[in-house]
Amino acid sequence: xxxxxxxxxxxxxxxxxxxxxxxxxxxxxxxxxxxxxxxxxxxxxxxxxxxxxxxxxxxxxxxxxxxxxxxxxxxxxxxxxxxxxxxxxxxxxxxxxxxxxxxxxxxxxxxxxxxxxxxxxx
Length: 122
Description:
- Helix content is about 20%, strand content about 40%.
- The protein is globular.
- The strands form two sheets. Strands 1-2-3-4 form a four-stranded antiparallel β-sheet, with helices on both faces. The chain has a three-stranded antiparallel β-sheet with strand order 5-6-7.
- The protein has about 120 residues and is of the alpha+beta class.
């Protein structure tokens, strides 16, 4: 078995197996000195088997979307290109919005506590 990928901040209620699956995929695109600070994963309100995630690293913020047959897609923004990060909290979940010169990127259905932590780090 592969050693776990280091993640600087992990909430006790987060599923370690889910975090490691995301971290293993994201680790493939990290630069040599880049480290994962936090991973926020969509919660049950997303109504999807494959949950999207937002990964915050020392160099950028990465949107992670798993697909069918092991495919994944990434969208990332270097911190220097991020104009704003905002959070819209709902009753059951929270939406994270990332503003860049290219526009807004949104990821919804994030657990409230994970979204707050991600927002604080960002």
